[in-house]
Structures are given as C-alpha cells and as structure tokens.
Amino acid sequence: MNTSASGGTLLAIPPLPPDDTALDAIFQQLVADVTGLPGTYVRPRWQPSVPKQPEPGVNWCAVGVIDVEQDNGPWIVYDPVLNVENYWDHERLQLLCSFYGPNCQGYARALRNGLDVPQNTEELLPNMIRYLDCGTVRAVPELVNEQWIRRQDLTLYFRRKVIAVYGIESFLVAPIQLLDDTVVNDTIIVPPGATMVGASFYNGALTADSPVTSDSTVPV
C-alpha cells in the first residue's frame, strides 16, 4: 500500500463502498421488501446473460442505478489513530424502477408510498444511504410481438455517504529524533555591514552584551 511517505499514486484502502452489481443488489432487496414482490421477480436491469422476460400476466420489476452525482464533497477528515485521511463524499443516486404486468401501476404506487415510512428504509442505513424523494409514475408501454406490455416507470432519489481512506500521513505524528545538549562546532558568518546582538550560546563564546560585526566569526 502506498502512503504519502513512500510516494507514488495513492489508491483508496479497502474495503471500498458497494458499487455496480453490489449497489444494485441493495436496491433490489429494498424494492422486493417494500412492494411485497417475490425476490425472483425484482431483477437487475442489466445482466450478463439476459433471462427470459416473464409472461405479460406476471407482475415483476427491473431496477438499476442510472445516475450518480457528486453532492457537496469531499470533506477531508484526519484519523490520528490510524494516521490516514478519510475522504467523506456525498452522492445523489437515481434509481430507475420499471414495473411490468397487469398490476404494474399499483406496485409502483406501493413502492412510492412505502418509502415514505421511515422504518421501511432502515435497511439502507448500514450502507449510509437515505431515501430522499421520487418522481412521477409514468406509463411506458412496450409493443412486443404485436402485443402491448404494460409498464410503469418510477425514478427514486437517494443520498449516499461514501468514505474513502487514503494513506496520507500527518507531520503531527511523524517520527522524530531528540538531540541532547552536546555542543556542535560550527561557525556563524555575519554578512558585510551587519551586526548581531542579543544572542548567547551554550559555550559562552557569545553573550547578549557581546555584539558581533561583519569582521567577526563566532565558534558555536
């Protein structure tokens, strides 16, 4: 792991916050819990292998994060215990939920209303996510094989706190070496035309009453 002492590009120290499929899975579980739809019928929008779409008479939902916007960040917080810096960032997330089936509008409304109950969003708190608001329930029917498939879209808005840890060390806890009172032989050179007064040295060679001019060199 690189730190500010070792030089080079600094990478965030694991563990990292959930993203991509892991983040979609968090919202997939939330939608299933609030709407009452079986988990197998709340699906990620984008999957490596596209599964067969349920029949028109089956109620189901596709969910996916479509936008991540930085919101008021980052805020840098130093951790004196670990000697690292925490970057506190806040993101505004947009989640698109597309409901299909004969009762798609009712399930979209159930999700919208259910998210206004604080207890229903408590499962998001361990991941530092809070529900903010939602858009309108919008009809987006699809014509498939000469048959209209009922679809209702609902966009949800969330705010997430993201903490990234970087190995940026502080001088406040840097290792130091204390020196004793051993006299070091050195020479002070006074610039031409200058006079140095008011100084005293450990070995007594120079005192406050002994001005030094540019013609003098003083052993320390």
Based on the model shown, name its key terms.
220 residues, mainly beta, Alpha-Beta Plaits, 2 domains, 7-stranded mixed beta sheet, 2 helices, disordered C terminus
Describe the protein:
The protein is mainly beta. It has 2 domains: 20-171, 2-Layer Sandwich (Alpha-Beta Plaits); 185-220, no CATH class. 12% of the residues lie in helices and 33% in strands. The chain has 2 helices and 11 strands; from the N terminus they run H-E-E-E-E-H-E-E-E-E-E-E-E. It has helices at residues 20-35, 104-114, and strands at residues 42-44, 60-70, 75-79, 84-100, 129-134, 138-139, 142-144, 147-149, 151-166, 187-189, 217-219. The strands form 3 sheets. Strands 1, 2, 3, 4, 5, 6 and 9 form a 7-stranded mixed β-sheet that branches. Strand 7 and strand 8 (147-149) form a beta hairpin. The protein is elongated and about 95 Å long. The protein starts with 19 loop residues before the first helix and ends with a strand. The relative contact order is 0.16. The model is unreliable at 186-190 and 193-220 (pLDDT under 50).
Number of domains: 2
Identify the CATH architecture of the largest domain: 2-Layer Sandwich
Overall shape: elongated
> What letter string, H or E per element, gives the SSE order?
HEEEEHEEEEEEE
> What's the helix count?
2
Number of E-type strands: 11
Mean pLDDT: 80
Cα-atom radius of gyration: 33 Å
Structural class: mainly beta
CATH level 1 class label of the largest domain:
Alpha Beta
